[in-house]
Signal recognition particle 54 kDa protein
Amino acid sequence: MVLQDLGRRINAAVSDLTRSSNLDEKAFDAMVKEICNALVEADVNIKLVASLRTAIKRKVNFKELAPGVNKKRVIQKAVYDELVELVNPHDKAFTPKKGKPNVIMFVGLQGSGKTTSCTKLARWYQARGFKSCLVCADTFRAGAFDQLKQNATKAKIPYYGSLTQTDPVAVAREGVDKFKKERFEVIIVDTSGRHRQEADLFNEMVQIQEAVKPDDTIMVLDASIGQQAEAQSRAFKDSAGFGSIIITKTDGAAAGGGAISAVAATRTPIVFIGTGEHMLDLERFQPQAFISKLLG
Ligand code: GDP
């Protein structure tokens, strides 16, 4: 199910109820059930869906609604507020400051869209007046440096990497040191992924973190990750730790409910979403704006 379909389904459930002539508790329960089914089918974590159901029902307590109250408004607001709550980490994300080096390290599985998102983010900050650059600490995947080089060149972003150095920690340290000396303000470090969560990937991430002391670590999650998002994001959080999330491929076939659930599992804010393969396909994520757009 694509994200728009999830939005349409939730919307339809709410408007079917609020337009119907008998707005009673039974019809209300059916609406809540339909919203929950849609969320589960979109891979939102079952426990989260259960707490959303409880919260909506608590807010719209039919027996206690005063006679004059606009039930339609109460229901619409409860659904909207609880969907916002679902993606609200209650934690503020890191934002870079001008005039100092801000080191941002990326982590994630191979193919999640890390390298693409690194360039998108460097370009994003460059367009907003930050002197930005990229460091390729992925010495694991053949061709990783070439890919970053191509992206960076297209976006006119200075980059650092090595075709001969095989130690990712050394490359990361050298690149970050060099760009710090050159007074870059946003220094983005791309690291290698693996196909699965593996001990050597986590060890490498921790070592790079110790070497470059990032101001923020961003985990990249593919929107199609599904129900394993919670376990995966917890595993990353427990080893390397991260302060922000980017969800990629929100333009694809998956509604991204799994990735959205990672927010609640790790209480980490989503900062951006990837909306396509192009350099400019990056949007800032804000819970309220996201849910408003989802619901059209
Ligand atoms: P990495 O292995 O994590 O570095 O992943 P890449 O950055 O190489 O991305 C893997 C694939 O996903 C590439 O073909 C990208 O073009 C694609 N990709 C990344 N982000 C997005 C996105 O937001 N939307 C779409 N449609 N494709 C994306």
